[in-house]
TrEMBL record:
This is Sensor protein. Residues 415-611 form the Histidine kinase domain. It is found in: Cell inner membrane. The keyword Cell inner membrane applies. It holds the Pfam family GAF. It catalyses: ATP + protein L-histidine = ADP + protein N-phospho-L-histidine. Keywords: ATP-binding, Cell inner membrane, Cell membrane, Coiled coil, Kinase, Membrane, Nucleotide-binding, Phosphoprotein, Transferase, Transmembrane, Transmembrane helix, Two-component regulatory system. Residues 234-261 form a coiled coil. It is a multi-pass membrane protein.
Amino acid sequence: MKLLQRSLVARIVASLLAISAMALISIVVTMAVAGGSRGDAAAINVAGSLRMNTYQIVAALQRYERIPSLEHRAEVHVLKRRFEERLDSEELTGAIPVSEAHELRRQYRLILGRWHNELAPQVSEAVASQYVRIEPLNRTLDGLVGDIDTMVKQLEQNTEAKIRLLSALQILFLGLTAVVVAIALYDIRHNLVAPLRQLMVLAREAARRNFSLRTQLKGSDELAMLGKTFDTMSEELGTSYAELEARIKRKTRELERSSQVMQVLHDGSRSLYGGGNDLCTSAAPMLRRVAELLDIGPIRLSLNDPHDDRQVPILATHAARRPDYCRDHDCHACLISPQPIRLSDTEDGDCVLLPVSVGDEMLGTLEVWHPKDERLSDGVRRLLNALADQLATAVYLQRRIEEEQQVSLMSERTIIARELHDSLAQSLSYLKMQVARLERMQAKDAPKEMQAAVFDELRTGLNSAYRQLRELLTTFRLKLEGPGLQSALQQTTAEFAERMGAPVELHFDVPPHLLNPNEEIHVLQIAREALSNTHKHAQAHWAAVTVKFHEARIMLRIEDDGVGLENDDSPPMHYGLVIMRDRAHTLSGELKLSNRTEGGTCVEVVFTPQTARLITRQPAIEPTLHDQGN
């Protein structure tokens, strides 16, 4: 019973089973009643024929009495035997109830008694005496016929009673079935259809993100439990959806804030990497804006001193005073703050130390203060790490730039010293030796002709030294005024084109930053010396300077259409050619002089620059693979 009350499926199954059971019982009862009524019509016919048979027996007796013959006697015996057969026939006895208390059974017994005790003896006596007593026979016959009529009537009533019973049973089962169906339909409508509609409405509203609707189903069946589960689920979904919306809004604000911070970092990178050396002016506004967006601060940047291993405070946001180390007291970048915050006040805040490092090199630390009761999220920590990395890159680049400037300065000084040593210093040494030689001649009162020769050598040496000094000044002026070798060569070709009154072409195809300053000076000096020789000796109407990089080697070619050389060997005492050969040797290259086929001279220098020498060439494996394939 408790299962039926709680389970809707059990109730529906019970209703179907009840309807099926009543239909089965109705069919069984109908079949039983129909089976019990089988033969009633035959019994009634047989009983009715008994009445006709009695009259036939009396008529045959009367004929036998008028004309006694064997034929009429036999007819009487046949009719008598037929009556007895019909009286004892299966059709008649099968329709009579077995119970002795039944009226039909008693009436049948009465007819049997009248036949065997009254009519049958009278018939036998009449056949034997050939005399028929009509009056007693008619009275016996009337009584028997009356009993037969009563039995026929009882048979008809018994059959009608069975039919009425069958009708009553059919009506009863039909009514019971209708009641069960009505109860089942009522149960299905109120406990299945209505809850399903409420669940469908709840599902549609949930699909529309409306979690406020409730089914309010009561009971303990499946749909009631499902409705309660849906109500609980809808309430939890509403709570979860509200939490998700709040989380999405919070994440959206964090993303917007992170985007703004990334934009600040991107904009700040321009000033950090713009070439300026002042971190305060470039980094302080960026740090202050980041602190404002992330609601943190103050932020303090300290750098490690590479010489004495101590940390030097560089700048701090919301600072009330300048850092102890400040290189520019006219700068107020770190002091622009409407509400200064003391860095020493740590009672209401926590500090996060972030390393400012590049690789394994520790450059400094970044102190980030934030309220003690607010934990920094992972996104904020990633942004702060990106900020620290950006500051580290800026500091590292600034130090590298300063180091490169110092190295460039020292390299420039070294180049100038080498050029002075290789040219002007040697000329001065030569002049010094000639002066010493002249002093010895004067001390020995040498002839004036010998002293005049020394004076000529001194004059030639001074002119050469002055020319070399002028060339060096021109070279270094070109180097300083124009960035790179290409600009210096452009100025050189323009200068000699003006001096020669003829076009001087320049073909330059070298990647940037390939040559170091020393190599650039030697290439420029060789080109100038070759153009100077062309101007003085070649009588050329055209010249060209070609510098290109091919197969990890630099090729410098100076050509003209002048008179050319007597042969491909340079004059042994030509001072300019000697200098060019020395410079080519310094570059670990080779100098070649030759006459052009079209006429004129070609000076060519080929060398491998220092940067190209660092390239590691892979061994050729194609032939090996080819041989293996063969």
